[in-house]
Write a structure and sequence with these properties.
A five-stranded mixed sheet has the order 4-3-5-6-7, with helices on both faces. A two-stranded antiparallel ribbon has the order 1-2. The relative contact order is 0.22. The protein is an alpha/beta fold and 114 residues long. The chain has one domain: 3-Layer(aba) Sandwich (Rossmann fold), CATH 3.40.50. 38% of the residues lie in helices and 24% in strands. The two termini are 21 Å apart. The chain contains four helices and seven strands, in the order E-E-E-H-E-H-E-H-E-E-H.
């Protein structure tokens, strides 16, 4: 089944993007902006098809949009997580979330998208 009550759930092989980076408070935090841009560049360099959501909207709106579209993975970057050296990785299927370092996110996504 490739959908649920929130929207589509695309297999990574046919999804418009494999990963979306959602930056929380992007226009208020230089740390969030830099971390988001760095992770985006690192994902692209690793050959992972990513998109960076830099819209100035509430987190719930951005999450709902990407869940509706069905991008398989979401990375959420915010000041609170960055203070601990972490970002959140969420799988679209089941919406399981784990907190990891940006480097671990790249390694895990390379493994799961291979």
């Amino acid at each position: 089944q490739n959908h649920d009550d929130r929207g589509m759930i695309w297999p990574a092989s046919i999804a418009p993007f494999s990963v979306v980076i959602v930056a929380l408070g992007l226009n208020k935090s230089q740390a969030v902006r830099v971390a988001s841009e760095n992770l985006y560049a690192a994902l692209r360099e690793a050959g992972i098809d990513a998109i960076f959501d830099d819209r100035d909207l509430r987190p719930g709106v951005m999450f709902a949009d990407w869940e509706l579209i069905g991008v398989p993975w979401r990375v959420t970057i915010g000041d609170r997580g960055l203070a601990k050296g972490e970002v959140e990785l969420t799988a679209r299927r089941g919406l399981q979330t784990e907190s990891l370092s940006p480097e671990d996110v790249i390694a895990l996504l390379k493994q799961r998208l291979a």
